[in-house]
Structure formats: structure tokens, C-alpha cells
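User: Fold this; C-alpha cells only.

Assistant: Input:
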Amino acid sequence: MLVEQLKENYFFAVIRGKDKEDAKNIARYAIKGGIYNIEITFSTPKADEVIKELIEEFKDDNKVIVGAGTVMNLDHAALAKAAGAKFLVSPHFSPEIAKYAVENDIEYSPGCGTVTEVVNATAAGAKIVKLFPGGTIGKGFIQAIHGPIPEVNLMPSGGVSASNVKEWKEAGACAVGIGSALSAKVATEGYESVTRVAQEFIKALD
């Protein structure tokens, strides 16, 4: 089941490339470092082409799952589907995107910041709910939600670092999104730095 594999992979690489090749390289080196959920955001130029090309490149690697991030509207959702994206992630909850995802058998993880949003998102079919912005909402939110709604899968994005990722997991996060931290050193140290950062995050959970 896709949701279980996404949770098992645990880390989502949230990739905002400067251009197509930048995005693909960040993805390649994240995968090399052991991060297999690859979220190509629509703030990346030609994001749908990046998704399609990465899916083709890693079609023989069963661990790698490529999806779309910053899915703001139905146009983005349709482009992502046409490219073969396995999941859609938004910074907000959109009932229209949720309906589209259910109808097209794509996982949808909307960004939520309140209990009401989380409940509405799960009722609309979201199996993993993104907590956004994670750093603002905080780890205690997961524990508080899991009191009345223990079965909901919550994935913080924003505010997750190698130094606090273990705390997020202990708080009950089913997965985490890692964005700018992954590629922060590319300009000075090259794409190999993405692999090193990915490995730091994985090691932090051991």
C-alpha cells in the first residue's frame, strides 16, 4: 500500500529547484543519501517535466516514490497526474484537490494547522495530513491531536532539522518533510552535500 511505503520511507525531500536540472540533481543526491519520497514542488520551473523524467529514471527502484508539492489548484493537480505523480502535497487544504485526488486514485496530503482542518482533510480522504508550518505549530500539536484522534497520520513540514527530527518522531509524526535544509550547502559544496545532509537526518533517527 502506497501510504505504508511513504511512512516506511519516512522522509519527504521537498525540492524547490532553480531549474529542471537543479531539481533533478537534488533529487538524485537525496535518493543516494537514502531519502526516497521525492516531492517536486510547483515552485520549480517545469515541475511536471521533472516529475515525469525522475519517474522514468528511477522506474526500477521500488523504494523511490515521486510526487508533486505546492499543489495550489486543480491545474497543478492535473499536470502532476499527467506526469505520473503518486502523491500531491499542498500548503493548504483544498476540498477540490481532495476530490480530484480521490477520483484519480492519488494520495493527497494537504497542509493543515488546526484540529478542524485535520478532521476535514481526513474526512475528504487524506491519509497523511501535512502539518504546516511545522516549526510554528510545534511538536505538542501532534500529541494533542493524537489524544482524541489517535489514528490520524501527521507529517510536519517546515521546522524539521537533523537536531530535532527524533523529537518529531517521538511526538508521533508518521513522516517528515525536509526542504531547504537538504540543499542549503549546494552553492558552496555541490550536490554531494545533499547526500551528506540526507544521511545526517537518517542517522539522527538511529
